[in-house]
Amino acid sequence: MRDSKQYSTGNSVICCMKFLIIFLAFVTPLFLFSQKEKTKNYKRFDERTFHFGFMLGANKSSFIVYQNIDAYSKYGLTSLTSQATPGGQVGIVSTMKIGTPVVRLRFIPTLSFQERVLNYTYKNTTDPKGKDISAQERVGSTDLDFPLMFQFRTLRFNNFAAYLLVGGQYTIDLQSQEKAAQNYLDPFIKIRRKDYQGQIGGGVEFFAPYFKFGIELKYSQSFKNSFIQDNTKPSNPIDKLYNNVIWLSFIFEG
Fold it and tell me: What is the CATH number of the domain that holds 200?
């Protein structure tokens, strides 16, 4: 079961990156070659060292799940999966040019709302028909995210540019119940309040007369295990949980 989770995780990352690469590889040249040279909007944008703006977006978050090797023999668990659910985010954008218009450093303090769902399936030893028992746990988060990213942008053509991102972020879960007393009548999954994630992504930018509009797609994944084992029924079959999120953002800079 552990191996299947690793393959599933790898496939989701690969699919996300393939989509991003195909999107940039096809959309960028088609957009560039379909245009004739024309007057540029916001001509002095690249001359400034700092730019500020705001971001609005949506996300889809889930867990990468590693279950205990003996989860079936001890607890009768036959399946444990994570279901991705939608959320949203809003942030403040700060971008700094690093010596050249091609390389920039971007910092976007963000407030994000996420929910991840764990689906359990247990073997039913009491039912003569052998119908499995299903259960579900929801883990909600309200996060303060502090992503710091290197932005590698193409040279601008008319009023269009594309870019790649790589970096990481520090996250504080304001909704975390890490230190809360466990309710053993209705137990819940505990995850750590602080997290460190790597990020990779890309986007496209369009220059209007007085601002720049960008569409950005990112993938982030935890470097460390976020799960806290406290020996409750929903937590017993779990070994480790890692956060992963796909982010779609709309960015406005001036």
Answer: 2.40.160.20
Q: Specify the pairing of strand 103-107 against strand 110-122.
A: unpaired
Domain range for residue 109? 2-253
126: Cβ contacts below 8 Å, ≥ 6 apart: none
C-alpha neighbours within 13 Å on the C-beta side of residue 209? 0
Number of domains in the chain: 1
Nearest residue to 140 via CA among 88, 203, 97, 216? 88
Q: Can you give the pTM of this predicted structure?
A: 0.81
Q: Which of 149-153, 178-182, 189-193 has the lowest mean pLDDT?
A: 178-182
Tell me, what's the pLDDT at 97? 92
In a 10 Å sphere around its CB, with 0-12 CB exposed, 13-18 middle and 19+ buried, how is residue 70 labelled? Answer: exposed
Token pair recorded at residue 101: 């218009």
- What would the mean pLDDT of 218-228 be, rounded to a whole number? 95
CA angle 171, 174, 176 (to 5 degrees): 95
* Residue 4 confidence (pLDDT) above 70: no
Give the 3-state secondary structure of the chain: CHHHHHHHHHHHHHHHHHHHHHHHHHHHHHHHHCCCCCCCCCCCHHHCCEEEEEEEEEEEEEEEEEECCCHHHHHCEEEEEEEEEEEEEEEEEEEEEEEECCEEEEECCEEEEEEEEEEEEECCCCCCCCCCEEEEEEEEEEEEEEEEEEEEECCCECCEEEEEEEEEEEEEECCCCCCCCCCCCCCCCEECCEEEEEEEEEEEEEECCCCEEEEEEEEEEECCCCEECCCCCCCCCEEEEEEEEEEEEEEEEC
